[in-house]
UniProtKB/TrEMBL annotation:
GO molecular function: alpha-1,2-mannosyltransferase activity
Glycosyltransferase recorded as keyword: yes
Composition bias, Polar residues: 60-77
Keywords linked to the UniProt accession: Glycosyltransferase, Membrane, Transferase, Transmembrane, Transmembrane helix
Coiled coil: none
GO CC annotation: Golgi apparatus; membrane
UniProt name for this protein: Glycosyltransferase family 15 protein
Top-level lineage group: Eukaryota
Positions annotated as active site in the UniProt record: E301
UniProt-listed InterPro entries: Glyco_trans_15, Nucleotide-diphossugar_trans
A biological process term (GO) from this entry: protein N-linked glycosylation
Organism listed in the record: Dothidotthia symphoricarpi CBS 119687
Transmembrane stretches, start-end: 7-25
């Protein structure tokens, strides 16, 4: 009896092995798939038999023609050609400009990467870096490797980054202490005040900047969220624009209590510099008596350097500089540039770049218009868009110019 049981087990085991060998042999005869769009060379050692059916993957006969495969839709269609490495057309006499220090290297590297990927890899514009100290070799090596155009590194003259002779430094120190107690942002910072004064009146006069007519200001740690497929500098020139912005908002009143008074003093003494069709309605609700505190956020600017070097702007800056507000208060370069542009440029010379998606802590400009965002591969959340927020001044800019707001802006309020 025991022998009979052993004999039966041997028979079952042998049958199992034969079945296993059969399946192994069968699997080796499955032909290689021919991928859509590629006509595979036929392996004559493999007979024309159907593909093995694998769960979840459709069965396709090997005998299908190339045309039949091509007629099937791709799972991820791409009907657009990739953009060229370098855009065609003439370049403007333009540069990016960044005020940075050596310790900002990785924050500015991030910004450069955004600008290059979204815009400059197609245009290869230069980049000027300015510092109140010497740039070290690491900063130069990293940034020059990232920029597609030429890089230039300049040191700011000491007289442009120091107290002018007419400033009472004891008074300035007391102001900083008072602002510190009131917890006003950058209220006790000396370097921030030098920076604001420099950006207001000197960066465009640096020897390296004298080679250019147009500039695009880039700060450390910014993001660009959408592809920019046209030359923004050429757009400015062709459309006779001289200043542009992507974000606008109200300034902290505590930092500029007498700035508008200084601006009115300028207009009184230099009426010839005031444009007839200016942007006073953006700056004031009462024909210039008081200031709305609206300004264009100057950490992003594309502008004309010849305008900043003009007699009108130099006279404006010189008048403000002697008023002392950069140190006795905390005047920022944003309201300074904005008031100057609002008074001395015609309103149609100022441009809002709705299509340049931008972030600088804590505000986001995400273009209003879903189709634009899809077409330009934007990765910003439209719910974060600041434009139609109550603290933004962009609606005022639209209303002043009689412009129709973008479709869908109501959803972002």
């Amino acid at each position: 009896m025991a022998g009979t049981q052993r004999y039966l087990r041997y028979i079952v085991f042998a049958a199992f092995c034969l079945v296993l060998l059969y399946f192994i042999g069968s699997s080796s005869s499955v032909p290689v798939a021919s991928w859509p769009g590629h006509e595979a060379e036929k392996d004559t050692s493999v007979p024309d038999t159907p593909h093995a059916v694998i769960p979840g993957i459709p069965s396709t006969p090997v005998s299908q023609s190339h045309d039949q495969l091509q007629s099937k839709p791709s799972t991820t269609p791409n009907d657009k050609e990739l953009p060229p490495a370098t855009a065609s057309g003439d370049r403007m006499n333009a540069t990016f400009v960044t005020l940075a220090r050596n310790q900002d290297i990785w924050e500015i590297a991030k910004s450069i990467r955004h600008v290059e990927d979204r815009f400059n890899r197609k245009f290869n514009y230069d980049w000027v870096f300015l510092n109140d100290d010497d740039f070290n070799d690491e900063f130069k090596k990293v940034t020059s490797a990232l920029v597609s155009g030429k890089t230039k590194y300049g040191k700011i003259p000491k007289e442009h980054w120091s107290y002018p002779e007419w400033i009472d430094q004891n008074k300035a120190a007391k102001v900083r202490e008072d602002m510190k107690q009131k917890k006003i942002i950058y209220g006790d910072s000396v370097s921030y005040r030098h920076m604001c004064r420099y950006e207001s009146g000197f960066f465009f006069r640096h020897p390296l900047m004298l080679d250019y007519e147009w500039y695009w200001r880039v700060e450390p740690s910014i993001d660009l969220y959408c592809d920019i497929n046209y030359d923004t500098f050429k757009f400015m020139a062709d459309n006779k624009k001289k200043y542009s912005f992507v974000l606008s908002l109200y300034e902290y009143v505590e930092t500029i209590p007498t700035l508008w008074d200084a601006a009115k003093n300028f207009t009184k003494h230099y009426p010839q510099h005031i444009a007839k069709d200016n942007s006073m309605k953006f700056l004031s609700d009462d024909n210039g008596e008081t200031y709305t505190n609206c300004h264009f956020w100057s950490n992003f600017e594309i502008g004309n350097l010849n305008w900043l070097r003009s007699d009108a702007y130099i006279d404006f800056f010189t008048s403000l500089d002697h008023a002392g507000g950069f140190f006795y208060e905390r005047w920022g370069d944003a309201p300074v540039h904005s008031i100057a542009a609002g008074l001395m440029l015609a309103k149609d010379e100022i441009h809002f770049f709705n299509d340049i998606a931008y972030y600088h802590v804590p505000f986001t400009h995400c273009p209003t218009g879903e189709q634009y965002r899809l077409d330009h591969k934007c990765h910003c959340n439209p719910k974060d868009n600041f434009d139609w927020n109550g603290y933004s001044c962009t609606s005022r800019f639209y209303e002043m110019n009689g412009m129709q707001k973008p479709v869908g802006f109501e959803k972002e309020q």
